[in-house]
Amino acid sequence: MRHCETTALAVLLRHQGLDLSEPMLFGLGSGLSFVYWDSKNMDFPFLGGRVKPFELTRNLAARLGLELLVQETTSPRKAWDQVAAQLDAGRPVGLQLDSYHLDYFTSKVHFAGHVVAMYGYDDREARLVDTEQQGGAVTTSLSGLARARAARGPMSARHRSFTLAVPRSSPSPRERIVPAVTACADAFLDPPIANLGHRGIAKAGKLVPTWLRRSDAPERDLPRAALLMEQAGTGGALFRNLYRDFLAECAQHLDDSHLRTGHRMYTEAAALWTEVAALISAAGEAGDQQSLDRAGRLLGEVSRLEREAMQELSRLRG
């Protein structure tokens, strides 16, 4: 699996006997979004393609009627006791933490919105499940895990742990496709501020061409931004590949022209996002303004394409 939060959700739900694909988990959690984020205290702008950390989990639990137990505390001792009690009872636990402190992470960048599933431990190590690119079933030191859970900063939580249970009366995932798709579409089409949703993509189209001037080290910052779009747990194309595959899977269960049109348009959008990432990377490596200008124009096209796709999907009825 490719994205951290859906990887952890899959582990917890499979333990309960509910086996859903990663695109289905992402889509039923209304995970797709967009944010262009820049501020005075940031070294370089950030392009995000999904809802904020843990919102996907809350969305999925509410939509499928799952019993979501979330525990947070400022006490490291209590935080460990909460997790150990669940594991000792035979239940895997989801953890939100800062990936910087995990031993198996070779790319040491602070990201406190990372999510893993924990399924065991001994006197020295914790046994975790992470994404395929991070190794799948991995281990990290208990001391590193404690630091990761205690980290503070953007997107951090207070030693957050969570478990999921599937009630007998839980609705079929197929029955929840339409509300999941339309809720995601409505949020994308009517964002509260201009740097979110389709408006945010349009804004990015205007600002990305300024990135050579925005950075003190464009040969570092622009390729890194492109790498985050394609490989940092996004599934490629800033999560658009995942949403494209979700819509394709939905079309196997639901015969609807709006759904088919949305899937076709997100297939186009995903390819454009990958092209944008390649142009941004090339611009940074060569100091090429023309590549950035081309990326900006493509983002304008993506904004229009995704807006029209979401307008189609918002008309979905089930």
UniProtKB/TrEMBL annotation:
Which residues belong to any copy of the Butirosin biosynthesis protein H N-terminal domain?
3-131
The record's section on InterPro entries has: BtrH_N (IPR026935), DUF4872 (IPR032369)
- Indicate the segments forming the DUF4872 domain, all copies: 144-313
The protein's name is: BtrH N-terminal domain-containing protein
